[in-house]
Amino acid sequence: PASATLAPGGDVTVGGVPLLELAERYGTPVYVLDEDEVRARARAWRRALPDADVVYAAKAFLCRAVVDWMEQEGLGLDVCSAGELELAATRGFPAERIVLHGNAKSPADLRTALRLGVGRIVIDSAGEIASLAARVPGPGPQQVMVRVLPGIEAGGHRKIRTGGEGQKFGLSLANGDAEDAIARVVGQPCLELVGLHCHLGSQISSPEPYARAVRRLVPLLARIRDRHGITLPELDLGGGFAVAHRPGDPAPAPAAYGRRIHDELIRSCAAADFPVPRLTVEPGRSIMAPAGVALYRVLAVKRTGGRVFAAVDGGMSDNPRPALYGARYTVRRVGRSTAAPMRATTVVGRHCEAGDVLAESVELPDDLRPGDVLAVPASGAYHVSMASGYNLTGRPPVVAVRAGRSRPLMRRETFEDHRSRDIGL
Ligand code: LLP
């Protein structure tokens, strides 16, 4: 992974390009994506579950180049808005490989999905069934899945757990909402129910919750067969596979998740006497996070109250994850190695909030000074895609590296971009 090349000492390179050179060429903050690493991780998922569809969760990070990479590696795309759909369409991504999600799909989301002919629309609420059916052009049928809320608590932080009872996603298995919705979908001739979906949460660092989901959903597939006489051919277990942000963080390889899921599927289907459905998984973070590195420049160093603060030229506007989820990262200085001892340093951003902390108490050289470049590994997912325009600092550019060369994928947001939206009076 891009993070593994950040070994202590010497010149740090990603994709064969020194990070310092990238900071100088593109300015900071900048996000660097290792193209080979993204592709290798996409392939690792395909190898982990050779009979499954692997659908990349676009929300982790999407731009036109990434759409192309996923297309070329044979993955599908999980999208949740007309915007993500339009972006995929600009590259002619095969619509039949797109899955549309969302607990509140707007008319524009549905219109765009139906116009482009997406492969699957995942129904998340009972009310959505009739409104989707009313929009399907001609006799259809539009292929759909029903998102089941399996009542399984899993995930790295309360805010990214989506499988337990009592939150906004899916239709509850426990209270019968899922089976009611399934009956209504089956009653709509223009909708074709092809399978069940669930998504448990994110940063799930063990395969066991997925095995549990299989043990709950396969019996539901068997009940649907008994009640409606239809044998659903697909089961989508969503994404949520953990990555390591710091050495030692638990992060099973795709193969480990794949093996456990596959074994449990075979076992549960045998127990329910149900034919093994085609699996889908929707990894986002696990493909993109380890392939990305964020680079910042130190603007100020402050020693106060027994602490050392290194303030950098980005912050919560390009990485809101520490503030939102208490996410922890490692930080490395690149391009300048000295004999200075290491010292616990808190890396903070430039935004006007005390909570704008990128990394609390990380080990950095004691002679840190303005102008030094800091690298934050495992930054490829849910940073740029969640970046905001806070304080008008401008969203950072994204650069791809491969075989010793770099190319810009997205340019830095400028004041002119902002001004052009602010139409005044
Ligand atoms: N499928 C569905 C239906 C999802 O909602 C998500 C993520 C995924 C797949 C992909 O999950 P992944 O493999 O990337 O964990 N902003 C948060 C993460 C939110 C995830 C939302 N849904 C964060 O930065 O931790």
TrEMBL record:
It catalyses: meso-2,6-diaminopimelate + H(+) = L-lysine + CO2. The keyword Disulfide bond does not apply. Coiled coil: none annotated. Keywords: Amino-acid biosynthesis, Decarboxylase, Lyase, Lysine biosynthesis, Pyridoxal phosphate. Residues 36-289 form the Orn/DAP/Arg decarboxylase 2 N-terminal domain. Its EC number is 4.1.1.20. Its cofactor is pyridoxal 5'-phosphate. Pyridoxal 5'-phosphate binds at residues 240, 282-285, 382. Signal peptide: none annotated. Substrate binds at residues 285, 321, 325, 353, 382. Pathway: Amino-acid biosynthesis; L-lysine biosynthesis via DAP pathway; L-lysine from DL-2,6-diaminopimelate: step 1/1. The modification N6-(pyridoxal phosphate)lysine is found at residue 59. Specifically catalyzes the decarboxylation of meso-diaminopimelate (meso-DAP) to L-lysine. Homodimer. Belongs to the Orn/Lys/Arg decarboxylase class-II family. LysA subfamily. NCBIfam families: lysA (TIGR01048). This is Diaminopimelate decarboxylase. It comes from Streptomyces yaizuensis. The gene is lysA.
